[in-house]
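Students often ask why we bother encoding 3D structure as a string. The short answer is that it lets us treat folding as translation between two languages. Here is a chain of 410 residues written in the first language.
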Amino acid sequence: MEQLRAPNSLPIPDQVWLGLFLARQIPNALSSCQQDDRNTVTSFRINEHILTLEPKDVWDDYVRAHNTVDEPPKPQSAVEKQTPNLTPKKVSDWPPSQWKIEGPLGEGGQGWTYKARRKSGPDGKSYVLKRLKNKGRLARFRNEIAALTKLQHPGILKIVETSEEPETPFFVAEYCEGADLGRANFSGKDLLTRLKIFRQVCEAVNAAHNAGILHRDLKPQNIFIRKDDSIVVGDFGLCIDLNDAKERATQTLEAVGAERYIAPEVAKGRVSEPQPTSDLYSLGKVLYFILSGRTLVREEYAEGEDDLRTRDAGPSMHFVYELFDKTITERPQDRYQSAADMLYALDTVVERVQLKAHVLKPSVRQHCMFCVVGEYQPSMGPGSNDLLYFCTNCGNTQRFVSPTSKPWWE
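And here it is in the second language, the structure alphabet:
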């Protein structure tokens, strides 16, 4: 068939025909262009099965979800180039026949995620379908599946199905109706409520550590909220199983994880043997985010405007800083050495917050335990190791006597 030509008698490039085809497939793609009298050029770029509209880089999930995916051609030798290949190109059906894609949920370094439902079945629930996008990370994708299958815990994302087709690796997990912690609204929630939310995260991480699995990518965006407000830890794409010696040897020197949540020794690639303390550093950063809504750059939680121990915060925030002092610190040996140790320390903080315990620090503003209206003012007692607190309203007095040569208030 004779090739069509433009008015200037030059052949119309294949790219133009591709653009016209795509315009027909994408609803309303040309509607805005027809109202614009200016001559504009919109370029299309296809790369790794993703259609992108430049310069805004808008992902076209319609094309991704409704078309088959051609495998990229393999490099040909000189002999193969001269010999016609009569073997049909292998294609992979997408989406999986038993699942209906309802829409995109987001994209990470390892895969695309979609909200999906079963095409047949009585549950009618929504699920998350995660599909690998970079086959160079197939090993990590399989590690994530293995970890989620192994970790049967209420606080860890539940996996319900995995693919058996090697050409389109994917797995299906529970869908959490609430936002991730990075988008959650904590306004109106008091300190005790936030600490209890954080405790659920620590319980899940402790369960993973007990099974020999380090998460290595703990951050608010990887922690999700279910419909009943329970918390679940997900996205184990960078996890490492300490029981797998081969995997441990190949992944210990990598700098993996979110830049502002990753432990310093991991970021600098100085870890010859992975340790739970790296996850505990990230947990401290997660707690700081839950309490403040901000992300620390490094370890400046006690400096300037980053210090949460303000006058309005109340004395209980000083108890929380005991947790920061043992997590968000540069040296691994200065942190809690296990998630179980951190859980125990967290429980003592929660108990003191519940009891409205007083902070053993004279400079901290504290209400009277008797009348609640007045505030205690410190004063030295009759002995060299005595400290007295007097209520400015009712006169209630609290006396402390130190058995050591250096009292705690010094």
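Translate back mentally: The longest helix spans residues 191-210. Keep this in mind for the problem set.
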